[in-house]
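Title: Prediction job returns without error message
Component: structure pipeline
Severity: low
Priority: P3
Assignee: unassigned

Description:
Job completed but the reporter wants confirmation the result is attached to the right record. Sequence as submitted:
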Amino acid sequence: MKKLLSIGLGCLLACQVSCSPSPQQEDHVQVRLSQDPASLHPLSYGNAHALQLINLIYQSLLTVEIGSHTVQPLLATALPVVKVKDSISYFSYQIRPEARWDDDRPVTAKDVAFSLKLLHGPLLDNERWRAQYHFIKDIQLREDNPLAFTIVASGYTPEMDLLSGDFFILPAHKYDPKGSLQALPLSLVKSKYDSLSTSPTFQALSKEINHPKVARDTAWVRGSGPYQLTSWNNGQQIILSKKANWWGNKLATTHPSFVARPTQLQFQVIPDNAAAVLALKARQVDVMDNIPLTNFLEMQKDAEFKKHFNLSGAPTYDLVFLGMNGFSKTLQDMKTRQALAHLVNIPQLIKTVQGGLATPTAGLVHPSEKQFYNSALKPVGFDPAKAQALLKEAGWQKTSAGWVKDQTKSKSPLALNLMYRGGNSEFESIALLFQQNARAIGIPITLQAIESSQISQRLQEHTYDLYLRTFVGNPFSYNLLPLLHTGSTGEDGGNVTNFGNATTDQLLEKIAKEASPATKATLLKQLQKEMQEESNMVFLFFQQNKLVVSSRFDSVIVSSLKPGYDLPKFKLKKN
């Protein structure tokens, strides 16, 4: 169905190009989406495109200005006042008195409490949120001030300063008009989770919250943000319109987070890259990111195209790496993993696969984060001779049949599988080049292009040898315990490569809790050194977002943070 849809859409666009190639008018912005958002439910959205739209409709207490990379208050009047006492931390907030829902009712602390109860309540699609916000124990409201409240949390880590205010606030009076949750403390919702799932109150509420209207209905997909859903043509187009009298307009001159200029945002769903590029060249799309390399390089050389569009290769925190299964007998030895790491030719990959639009790295911290990046380390060098020497140190012997090692009186050959997501042409090229380098020294690599869900399953079951994947990071949180701690190697754990030891566990635990940037930097640099030595994950490069934006607009902020551009700040150029 997806291929048929892409072909049909491509033909339609071709007709539009030849029949009516008129550019967009006024301050409407047309954005290409590579897939339909499927759901705009603030609890259970399904993909990154959905999140991009939801952030324009709903608001949280805090936000991240993607241009400056700073955390700013949004619904809150200021960043939280934080107090830590023993093993409990307190985050005190106050909501802006101007904040309003579409029916002109004020946003209050009761809306925050209701939203937290949805994040932790039973019978809702909120598993990922319950895990992420598990540290929140309760919320304390104030009788004397309906806009003030305190979030109570277990323990303290610096990332809680952002996380305590980084969830969507929903209108309690709309979602729960009878106030069925108002008398239930959040602590009770959490502690009585299983028993509450059988209560008529939660069963009735969950039926309403899970209703499709919350995800798609123009009358329901409305928050306190500047835009509202006005139409959704499934698989083709979604339109968000600026609210005529949005409450945040009066704050825009002094608070950049409230700037929302375009009166309409039109999201064109075009799964096929060729069709999307065709629409872009016909000026029927203003914004397109993740442009295929070949097309992007052609656009850079096209003088006529550059009259109408601005191109950029913005850095991202999307880190491509080669993972190795440290659970397997074949790869449990560190020197074997180190040997394989020296068969990756990173400069070649960046040049041929990325067209030079990538940033090499020695660790999982982006090199632009100069305080935290270990610049004393160098990315792993391509060195087949060193790889063979390391294999011999690990006990492998090179024979006419390949590399073998004595294990329990039988010769075990060094032959590996490398899996990656099917349909990802960049990963396929990386895999082929690695396979070629390994074959040159006598190591056979079988390539496995499979679905992402199958990769996840094999990673959890530890039934793999090597894999290629992208880790999406950010500069705000370095709590890597779920990904790298040895305590996360069990069922459903994030440490699928069996990385770590007592030393790295201590580093990870200290990093997660450390508030001092200088001390955190020292710990992170040591962790990067340990990770390069262990080589369970071989970091290749951080990708760059190949982005094109129409030159019709000024004030275009391009960022390394998702989605890579700040649509509300687009400003139509004056003729």
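Comment from assignee: result matches the submitted record. Residues 1-23 have pLDDT under 50 and may be disordered.
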